Amino acid sequence: MILFLTRTYFPEGCNGKLECEGKLICHTIELPWKNNETKVSCIPEGKYFIKKRYSKKFQWHLEIVDVKNRSLILFHPANNALRELNGCIAPVTKLSGPGLGLMSRTAFVKLKDLVYQALDHKESIELIVQSGFLTVEG
Questions:
Q1: Where in the chain are the domains?
Q2: Strands 13-20 and 23-30: what pairing?
Q3: 3-state secondary structure string across the chain
């Protein structure tokens, strides 16, 4: 399975859309680009793989592996990138501003269910992060 994350960059954060086979899964929010600095920047554009991960804080969630000079880059719920993210990606149902979104938990469950189902069938999950053009409304 290949997921495409197409970003639009703003000084306050990144907004994106996450698609699979041309179908929208959800929107995303991230921190702004700050040269891949730990805890203050989104991750670089490129190709990554996703795996299941468990923690007490987020329970079962998704980890993006092999991010250059970074670790523990996750997909987890958040509605405000600057307040709630340290470089991770938050799925959201609707974008509400640069780095801001609504109903993140709903979007996260939808994404997690899709990815876990593919992983349970022994599929690899590839994430391609790229830049694009997206309005704030989505």
A1: 2-131
A2: antiparallel
A3: CEEEEEEEEECCEEEEEEEECCEEEEEEEECCCCCCCCCCCCCCCEEEEEEEEEECCCEEEEEEECCCCCCCEEECCCCEHHHHCCCCEEEECEEEECCEEECHHHHHHHHHHHHHHHHHCCCCEEEEEEECCCCCCC
Place of tokens 């991750």: 43
Determine the Cα–Cα distance for residues 95 and 2; give it in Å rounded to an integer: 23
Q: Which of 74, 79, 136, 73 is nearest to 104 (CA)?
A: 79
Structure token pair of residue 40: 């203050």
Distance CA 123, CA 22 (A): 18
- The domain defined by 2-131 folds into L,D-transpeptidase catalytic domain-like (2.40.440)
Q: Residues 81-124: pLDDT tens digits?
A: 999 999 999 999 999 999 999 999 999 999 999 999 999 999 99
pLDDT in tens, 4-17: 999 999 999 999 99
